[in-house]
Amino acid sequence: MPIIAGGVLEKDGKYLLVQESKQKCYGKWNLPAGHIDAQELLFDGAVREIKEETNCDVKLTGVCIIATQRCEEPSVYFVFATKILTDDVKPQEGEILEAKWFSYEEIINMHDELRAPEWIIPSISAYRNDDILPLSIITVTERKVQ
What we know:
alpha+beta, 3 helices, 21% helix, globular
C-alpha cells in the first residue's frame, strides 16, 4: 500500500500548490507531496518530497489530516502543517509544471482543477482553522531485523 506524505505551505494568507505533469493527472493542482521510500521515516519523506517539488525547506509542525481511499491501489495520505524555512520556489523539473500561491477562496473555486479536492481542501481548512494534531500522535519505532 503506497504511503504519500506532503504538506500545507502558507505564506501571507496564500497556499502553495504544484501542477502535476504525470500522464494520469496532467495539469491538476496538488499539495506538494509524494511517495515515502522504503526505509524512509514518514517525517523525512514529507520534508524531502516538499523540497523536491517546490525547492522549499520546511519544518513539520503538526498533522492536518490522515486520509485513505478505496480504489484499485489503496493509499494512505499524511498531510502535515509546516513552517516555511526557505521559500525560493522552483518547480521540480520533469515532475512539476508550475508551483503557485493561491488564496483559500481561489482553491475552493478550483475544485475540478484539483487532483484530490477530497483531501486537499480539508487539509487547508484544518490548517486555516488551527485544527492541527500534534506530531506526537505518530510514533517512530525501530524494528531490528532478525
